[in-house]
Amino acid sequence: MGTRENKVETYFKDQVKALGGMTRKWVSPGVDGVPDQIAIIKGSVFFPEVKTSDGKLSTAQVREHGRLRKNGAMVCTVYGHKGVDQLIEDVRLFNRPLTKFYG
pLDDT (tens digit, 9 = 90+) per residue, 58-69? Predict the structure, then answer.
C-alpha cells in the first residue's frame, strides 16, 4: 500500500506554504465532489484535488470538477508527492497550474 492521502495533502500544504502561499480545506455541504483544497499563491487561486499516486477520481468528482472548469475555475488533480512537486514547479515558473493532472 502506498502513501496515505492525508500525507500527500500535508506535503502539498507544506510546499504551498514554502512558496508564501496558503491553503484551505474545502467542504461544501450538499455538493459532492468538490476538490479537497483551495490554494492561493501570489494572487492565483486554484482548486487542487489531492490523491495518492494510485488514487482515482470518483464520478461525482469528475462531474463537479468539470462544472467548476466550465465556470472558469482552475481545477487540477495532483497524484502523490511527484504530482505535488510538478504542480509546485509550474506555479514557481508560471504563477499558476498549467495542466489538469499532475503525477
Answer: 999 999 999 999
pLDDT, tens digit (0-9, with 9 covering 90-100), for 68-85: 999 999 999 999 999 999
How much is the CA Rg of the chain, to the nearest whole Å? 13
Any idea which residue has 489531492 for its cell? 50
Can you list the domains of the chain with their CATH numbers?
Answer: 5-102 (3.40.1350.10)
What is the residue whose three cell numbers read 482515482?
56
Hey, what long-range contacts does 95-99 have (CB within 8 A, 24 or more apart)?
Answer: 95/41, 95/42, 95/43, 95/44, 96/44, 96/46, 97/46, 97/48
